[in-house]
């Protein structure tokens, strides 16, 4: 499926969505943490991209959240000479950069070894390998994402803390909860107008935009795609669009899972169904018992603890999982309950699907979809039982729980046969060891909370 590319209209540029200067071409790869790295070329030199002549060290995709290659624990950098890999660009992801000089373009690439094989570290390649398992069964996942993020004042570098945009405050304090509040949408209309212009220019299948609970928190829904790799590309591009639009207006966007202690966290919900070679939704219960829907739901619940590190990849991620919030803490499912880990919005017809509600906005969309679709596969291979359904009037007793602890999630990931099967044993070790270092650094760091609470009293 090719990405539709739209010219940025003059009216959009009047809103500041393009700048002067020489156009450029950016070839981008996705890192472990969903970060974008790559090279910038002048327009006219892009033939190097299509011929596979762009090189980057393969260790670029092993960098941790601080940008450290961790050669001491991975042995993938200087230990072996920090070898180059070859960037293989995906033409389907070619899109304009409406925030850059007119005519600028970007494209996503996958890291390959020089023998032509995809790097075991490349998140796009990991998702593609899961999709090959579906293709071998004559099946195609259909996927959509819903991304929540915060827009905040642009002085965060000076203050060291996030704060809502001034238009959403009164005497410096937030106006209150803004869920579905159109006045909050109106207050940031200029920003949202730019975001929509960028999405339109890139042909992103953006649908509804809504105000969420927190001050400056918004959700953008992306439409379903019968191409999970393209759906992950869409999500990643949306994150970049949100950031670039904020920069244009002197603001800051963030996909931190929990930027404010006192306000709601940001999630990344995934809707998924599966179609066969005739385009029929195999999860359609056709008015009867949704056995297949329940089975893939069970597969997701059975693998959720092992994959939680993918859904919550940072120390901050675990601050979302609070009892009484909309971030799930129990391994539950239900047809109409938004507090469950897996919700079934529809069981009949083409719209029959699951909604995975666990991941934070900080999740890498490629690894996230690989984990979800991998879990669903286990429910296709066997008929599984998800257990009792959660309803508005009934909560099953003694349900298993997600962990609230970063290091526990790391250890579950590192020892999981399911993770080794879906991500490969080498990537399991790389990702798990890197995240273990991050978790230990978090545990060793004495925070301001520690000083405020304990220093005066102990």
Polypeptide structure, described:
- This protein is of the alpha+beta class and 458 residues long.
- It folds into two domains: 109 residues, Ubiquitin-like (UB roll) (Roll); 319 residues, Glutamine synthetase/guanido kinase, catalytic domain (Creatine Kinase, Chain A, domain 2, 2-Layer Sandwich).
- 33% of the residues lie in helices and 19% in strands.
- The protein is built from 14 helices and 16 strands.
- The strands form three sheets. Strands 7, 10, 11, 12, 13, 14, 15 and 16 form an eight-stranded mixed beta sheet that branches. Strands 1, 2, 3, 4, 5 and 6 form a six-stranded mixed beta sheet that branches. A two-stranded antiparallel sheet has the order 8-9.
- The radius of gyration is 22 Å and the shape is globular.
- About 3% of the residues have low confidence.
Explain the layout of strands and helices.
Layout: H1 10-14, E1 24-30, E2 36-42, H2 47-50, E3 55-57, H3 71-74, E4 84-89, E5 95-96, E6 105-112, H4 123-136, E7 140-153, H5 156-159, E8 169-170, E9 173-174, H6 182-187, H7 189-202, E10 206-211, E11 217-222, H8 228-248, E12 251-254, E13 268-275, H9 291-311, E14 333-334, E15 342-346, E16 353-356, H10 365-381, H11 406-414, H12 417-423, H13 425-444, H14 448-454
Parallel strand pairs: 1-6, 14-15
Antiparallel strand pairs: 1-2, 3-4, 4-6, 5-6, 7-11, 7-12, 7-13, 8-9, 10-11, 13-16, 15-16
